[in-house]
Structure formats: C-alpha cells, structure tokens
C-alpha cells in the first residue's frame, strides 16, 4: 500500500491554498483521497499531476476525472432534521466530510454510479426547506 501525502491546491481567484490528501499512482500521478471544501473542479478519486517545490507537492493539472461530483453544503437546521434530510442522500451512496467549527460546512462526494439528478433534487429540497444552502463545486458525472 502506498503512503498518503498532502498536496496543495491553489485557488488563484480566492487567493487561498487548500491542502488535500493524495496517494501516488504507479505512473507518478496522484489520486485525490478526499473531497475539497474550497477548491473547484476537483473531486474525490480524480487523478492529478503535481510539481514539487521546496519538498511540497503542488497541484499541476487534472489528468483524469473520476466521474465523481462534489457539492458543498452549509447546514443551519438542527441535527435531527439534518439526519432526516441526509438519510436519502446516504442511501444513494453519497458521503461527506465535515469542515467543523461553527460553519457547519460539508463537502459531499457523489459517486460516479449515483443518479446525480436525484441527488440534486434532494439537495434542492433541503435548501427549499431552509435546512441548508448548497453549491456545486464540480460535476464529474456524464450528463448525456
């Protein structure tokens, strides 16, 4: 098993760097091992290349899209309501990482085999109920 490493991803528009876990592939590229909270255009399990500067990995470009999509949610409802609204998303195969703190920010991974239209509909329903606000950070699904 290869070792996980950290890679810096630069968002030049927001002038911020997000650090994500990656694992090196046999061809020298890297698999992204978590969902981004702030960077756009990248999803869990995408294959990326890197530049090394001062011993630190820096994102260079995406090599291959995983087919996964990333959504971000800031939830404002109570925990019980969140769990009720989250349950159908979980049943569809979605997972999330929590940023923590007072922000209640989630980065949601939608697997490539999951019906993205059902997921979007459920996210909209939660937003319409004022349980959360969401945005699409990257759509890797084939929409044809």
Topology of helices and strands:
Blueprint: E1 4-11, E2 16-24, E3 30-32, E4 47-53, E5 56-64, E6 69-75, H1 79-91, E7 95-98, E8 105-110, H2 116-128, E9 132-138
Parallel strand pairs: 1-5
Antiparallel strand pairs: 1-2, 2-3, 3-4, 4-5, 6-8, 6-9, 7-8
Nutshell version of this structure?
This protein has 144 residues and is α+β, with helices and mostly antiparallel strands.
Overall description:
The chain has 144 residues and is α+β, with helices and mostly antiparallel strands. It has 2 domains: 61 residues, no CATH class; 70 residues, Alpha-Beta Plaits (2-Layer Sandwich). It is 18% helix and 42% strand. Strands 1-2-3-4-5 form a 5-stranded mixed β-barrel. The protein has a 4-stranded antiparallel beta sheet with strand order 7-8-6-9, with helices on one face. The termini are far apart. The model has no long low-confidence stretch (mean pLDDT 92).
């Amino acid at each position: 098993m290869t070792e996980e490493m950290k890679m810096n991803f630069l968002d030049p528009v927001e002038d911020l760097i997000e650090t994500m876990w990656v694992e090196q592939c046999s061809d020298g590229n890297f698999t992204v091992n978590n969902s981004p909270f702030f960077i756009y255009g990248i999803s869990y399990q995408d294959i990326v290349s890197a530049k090394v500067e001062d011993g630190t990995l820096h994102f260079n470009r995406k090599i291959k899209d995983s087919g996964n999509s990333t959504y971000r949610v800031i939830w404002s409802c109570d925990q019980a309501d969140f769990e009720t609204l989250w349950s159908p998303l979980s049943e569809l195969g979605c997972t999330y990482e929590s940023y923590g703190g007072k922000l209640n920010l989630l980065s949601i991974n939608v697997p490539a085999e999951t019906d993205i239209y059902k997921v979007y509909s459920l996210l909209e329903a939660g937003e319409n109920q004022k349980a959360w606000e969401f945005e699409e950070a990257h759509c890797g699904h084939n929409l044809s």
